[in-house]
Amino acid sequence: MSDQIKQIAERLRGLRDVLELTSQEVAESCQLTVEEYLGMESGEKDISVSALQKIARKYGIALDVLMFGEEPKMSAYFLTRCGTGVSVERTKAYKYESLASGFRGRKVDPFIVTVEPKPEDTPIYFNSHEGQEFNLVIEGRMLLNINGKELILNPGDSLYFDSAQPHGMMALDGKTVKFLAVIM
């Protein structure tokens, strides 16, 4: 387990302890099974940004607190220089770089997402969350599956969708894909 995943798992446990909630209460309130939630809290299960966002919204905390352990401080603007956004690698295949981690009270969460290629027979991991999402491919090509509809996005292509629909992506051509994801 990476140090980052371990730290996120510790923050999840801490949040639940502070709020004096059972694992079942947190799991149910975020549409997760108890096993899924406990796997995230132990750091043994992949922790999706969508699951963290559900938990953050449900309990009224900033997503950054769960992901990075820091409360946003800026309220007028927040500048992120190229390649300097706060990053978290959920797994070896996904890296999220926050582009607005220091801005307090954000209405959206913008990330640069890097997805490493996997063998073609690897199943796509699906997630869903409240709100909407915008993806713009910066480099590489990706397959984006939204509720069974497969779309191929090339550099410069973008897609805006209802993120309550089950969705997942895969890098194509054996190459890394990098895209801007804005979660609203």
UniProtKB/TrEMBL annotation:
InterPro entries, sorted: Cro/C1-type_HTH, Cupin_2, Lambda_DNA-bd_dom_sf, RmlC-like_jellyroll, RmlC_Cupin_sf, TransReg_Diox_bact_type
DNA-binding as UniProt keyword: yes
Domain HTH cro/C1-type positions: 12-66
Coiled-coil regions listed: none
Top-level taxon of the source organism: Bacteria
GO cellular component: cytosol
Protein name per the record: HTH cro/C1-type domain-containing protein
Origin species: Phocaeicola massiliensis B84634 = Timone 84634 = DSM 17679 = JCM 13223
